[in-house]
Each structure stands twice: as C-alpha cells, then as structure tokens.
Amino acid sequence: MSHLKVIVPAAILLGGFLVSTSASFGKQEYMKATKKQCVYCHVKVSADKDEMNKNLTAPGKYYHEHKSLDGYQEKK
Questions:
Q1: Cβ–Cβ contacts within 10 Å for residue 34, how many?
Q2: Alpha carbons 60 and 74: distance in angstroms, whole number
Q3: Which of 11, 22, 30, 68 is 20 to 30 Å from 57 by CA-CA measure?
Q4: What does the CA dihedral 32, 33, 36, 41 come to, rounded to 10 degrees?
Q5: Contact call for residues 43 and 57 (beta carbons, < 8 A)
C-alpha cells in the first residue's frame, strides 16, 4: 500500500507532462534564419495554426509573401 502512495502521484505527474505539451506550428528554422522571436511576425502566439496566420504583423506578412525578411524595411 505504501508503494501506491508514491507510484500514483508519480504516474499522474508524468501523465500531466505528456498531456500538457502543446503542438508547435512555428518552426525553429524560421527563428534561426531570421534571428527574431515569434512576436516579431505575430501579434500574439497561439496554439491554433489558423489564428497564427491571421494575426501577422507587417514583417510577418512580408515573410509570408517572400519566405525571407531580406529586403524588409521597418516603418518608423
């Protein structure tokens, strides 16, 4: 019975870690290529891919069209 006091909470904790990992639609190669964080191209970060595509900033729209930030001029 004393083993259950340790095993059950450990199993619940492990299960929680496995379930709580969220799908990531952003790709690390984008961050490595642009040297920018997600919020540079997106207004807010979300787990929903469609929502991420809808909330692009000006640099994000430029990246979506050109597949690169080369040539992008920030508006001042």
A1: 16
A2: 12
A3: 22
A4: -120
A5: yes
